């Protein structure tokens, strides 16, 4: 079974990654030394905390099993374990990149995500 993890990313930054063939991370990732990901259950809180009101975002789905030892599960908010990738993201691990629009209430409208 594939374990999927997620990255919320500005569309322009993702298009640049597609041109380069890898994703090195957003500015916060580069500053922290790893790429931040979320699980399906962590996504909405991540969007509200770090991307509130931002349009032009994509939701990137990634097969965690293809990331190898560079993927570590580390405590973050309230002790919850979050996936952190200590390497550039090889685009071969990406399952999908879909728009993450703002809904009429100003919150992000997530596609259906399997639990």
Short summary of the structure?
By secondary structure, the protein is α+β, with helices and mostly antiparallel strands. The chain has a single domain, classed as ADP-ribosylation fold (Alpha-Beta Barrel), CATH 3.20.170. The protein is 21% helix and 31% strand.
Description of the molecule:
The strands form three sheets. This protein has a three-stranded antiparallel β-sheet with strand order 1-4-8. With 115 residues, the chain is α+β, with helices and mostly antiparallel strands. A hairpin with a 5-residue loop joins strand 5 and strand 6 (81-85). The protein has one domain: Alpha-Beta Barrel (ADP-ribosylation fold), CATH 3.20.170. It is globular, with a radius of gyration of 13 Å. It is built from three helices and eight strands, in the order βαβαβαβββββ.
């Amino acid at each position: 079974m594939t374990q999927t993890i997620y990255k919320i990313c500005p569309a322009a930054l993702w298009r640049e990654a597609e041109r380069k063939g890898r994703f090195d991370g957003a500015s916060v990732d580069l500053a922290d030394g790893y790429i931040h990901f979320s699980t399906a259950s962590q996504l909405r809180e991540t969007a509200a905390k770090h991307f509130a009101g931002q349009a032009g975002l994509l939701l990137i789905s990634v097969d965690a099993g293809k990331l190898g030892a560079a993927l570590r599960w580390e405590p973050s908010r309230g002790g919850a374990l979050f996936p952190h990738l200590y390497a550039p993201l090889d685009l071969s691990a990406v399952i999908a990149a879909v728009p993450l629009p703002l809904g009429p209430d100003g919150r992000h409208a997530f596609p259906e995500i399997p639990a």
